[in-house]
Each structure stands twice: as structure tokens, then as C-alpha cells.
Amino acid sequence: MPFPEQWLKAAIESAAGCSAFPMRAPEGQALPYVIYGRIATARESIMTGTAAVNVNPAGDFAVEIYAATYTAAKTLADAVRVGLHNFTGTASGVTIRLCLLTEERDGDPIDFDGQNQPTYTVEHMYSIRWQE
């Protein structure tokens, strides 16, 4: 069964032009990169006669953009926003009913071992409704 993470990975990589990983990046991954993951899923049901029928689920997804400079992180974040926000359609085998950017903020700079300067992050939250 197709799931929205399949579309999310492909859409992020296409929009940002860098690798995207579920939940965490491999150790030593070169910048820039993006991490994504599902935070929550709401599954609503409606009654039709005597049976409950599931309607399209909606999920909240965190997307974190990592880059070597603040400007690069903001530029990549904007590219990701343009590629994901307000998307509807079928891609990567899943039908996305609607994807909306609901929150955006600068993350705290991170000092990774062996780096002379911090890594900058931008954090997005998306609400995605899809068809199962």
C-alpha cells in the first residue's frame, strides 16, 4: 500500500536537490540534507448504514533542513516549501489530497564533532491528507 512518506521523500529531494532521510541522517552525512518523519496520524470514520468507513487520513510531518550556513538553510527551506506546500495529486504511487505547511521556524544551530562552524537548521511542520 502506498504511504505519504514515499511521496514526501521524492518531493523533498526534487525540490531541494539534496538527499532526504526518514527520522535521521546517516552518521557523517555531508551537508546539505533533509530529515522527515511522521509525528501523528488522525483517522476519521463516518457511519454509512451500519458500518464505519474510514475517510482519508491526515498526518502531521516534521521536516528538518540542515545546511552549512544560515543563508543556505533558508534557501533550501524555501525550495522545500515551494515543492510541498499546497500540493495535490498522485505521485510516487500515493494520492495526496492536500499538503499544507503549518509551521516554520529556525532551529538551534548544532555543533557536530569535527566541525569548526555550526550547522544551521530550519524546521517545518506539514499537514498531509492522503488516500489509502
Give your account of this protein's structure:
- There is one protein chain.
- The chain is an alpha+beta fold.
- The chain has one domain (4-131): Phage tail protein-like (STM4215-like, 2-Layer Sandwich).
- It is built from 2 helices and 8 strands, in the order αβββββαβββ.
- The strands form 2 sheets. Strands 1-2-5-8-7-6 form a 6-stranded mixed sheet.
- Helix 1 (4-16) crosses helix 2.
Provide the β-strand percentage band: over 45%
What is the CATH C level class, in words?
A: Alpha Beta
Mean pLDDT equals 93
Overall helicity: 10-25%
In which order are the strands of the major sheet placed?
A: 1-2-5-8-7-6
- What general form does the structure show? elongated
Distance between the termini: 7 Å
Structural class: alpha+beta
Write the layout of secondary structure elements.
Blueprint: H1 4-16, E1 19-22, E2 33-42, E3 45-48, E4 51-54, E5 58-67, H2 70-84, E6 87-91, E7 94-106, E8 120-131
Parallel strand pairs: 1-2
Antiparallel strand pairs: 2-5, 3-4, 5-8, 6-7, 7-8
